Fold this sequence. Notes:
A: 81% helix; B: mainly alpha
Amino acid sequence: MLSYKFDWAIVTSGKYFDWIVSGFYVTIKLSAVSIALSFMLGLIIAIMRMSHFRPVRWFAHGYLEFFRNTPLLVQIFFWYFGSYKVLPAVANDWLVKQDFEFAAAVIALTIYTSAFIAEDIRSGVRSIPKEQMEAARSSGFSYLRSMQFIILPQAVRLTIPPLINQFLNLMKNSSLAMTIGVAELMYQARQVESYTFKGFEAFSAATLVYVAISFTITGLMTLYDKKVLQPLKGR
Amino acid sequence: MIGGLDFSVVRDNLSYFFIGRYPKGPLGGVGLTLYLAVVSLALSFIGGLILGLLSVSRNRLLRYGSMAAIQTIRGMPLLMVIFWMFFLLPAMLGGGMTASWTIIVALTLFTSAYMSEIVRAGITGIPKGQMEAAISTGLSHGQAMIHIILPQALRNMIPSFVNQFVSMIKDTSLAFIVGVSELTQIATQINNRTMLYPTEIFIFIAVIYFIICFAFTELSRWLERRLAYRKAI
């Protein structure tokens, strides 16, 4: 360790710096797309999970349990290596025309995270008093409309902190996409290490980026809790 | 054949999936996955307890120092921690660590940070009166922590620990990346060898992981209900 010569210049400028930056962009892109999709899917699953129609509720329950209790890496491998046998031909044709590595990572991250998001939304909804739903129904809203206009707007406000937490997890989990060759931040850090043997510098740069994103978002969340949620609770 | 899928590849390699080349060779597959998870969990229980106690310490330096360490680790992907360990441990110890042990160290470090939050929440969840009562009976702060607060807090934490074990089992799949022959690594090996059955292989191991993790998730829910019931009476 003593003989190691630090060379921070390689990760602060030049070609390798550009690699890290491009990796950062891919991480952000991958996370942003997956966050948007997993939120929508999670919302749908959460609503299905609370449905009064049993088969729908059971399907949502099975979905939740299965995808929450399976490692993300295995899910990524399944979508990347194995999905062609179970998907319809149209879907396969469409997928191979896309950036397939990226698409497989998005699908896996979306499905995995949506299961967690659905549970968070459900517990948010359950914390809204039952009378709210009864009042909405008795003033003539259908079940779905009362959800849309009365319950969900309130529940979402409570659900924001755990949701942001899930999004943060998703961003960290997106590093697993390197295993199928998506050139995101972790992949690029690895790449810089193998080209320069400067692993300490490369990993430090990537760590710094991940930790900086996490700290920023955690800080904003604390602020949200202080400025928005606490006053609501105090009322 | 189930729905156009041919699971004979699973049947032919069944013992390889579960125990690797054991007893003729090293343990692998499901056996190694469970071994990694259990050893890492036991170690991160100790690590989490120490970090958690430090983060509620009355000494400001210890408290802020440990919290900074915890938050930094929680801000990193597990993969990053694994690469750090693979890079740093040989440099610090001059080699001699097996891949399995490096993974165990990485998992322990990572999970300790999460465990410490459970410990901290457990300790702060015990009513203040307990500590005050303990101190007024003549115990020191440390004694009160060990004999009064921790036993109560630890009991409340059991469901969270079981949940953490589920995460740990899922996390051991990352050992694949550094070539430790746990279940995911075995699956990719068989997939590389047979080439034709990726769907069957990955569905099979997903189901295996699911069965193990789901059993423990249910256990944690049952423990939680039982704890709530005991608190109610």
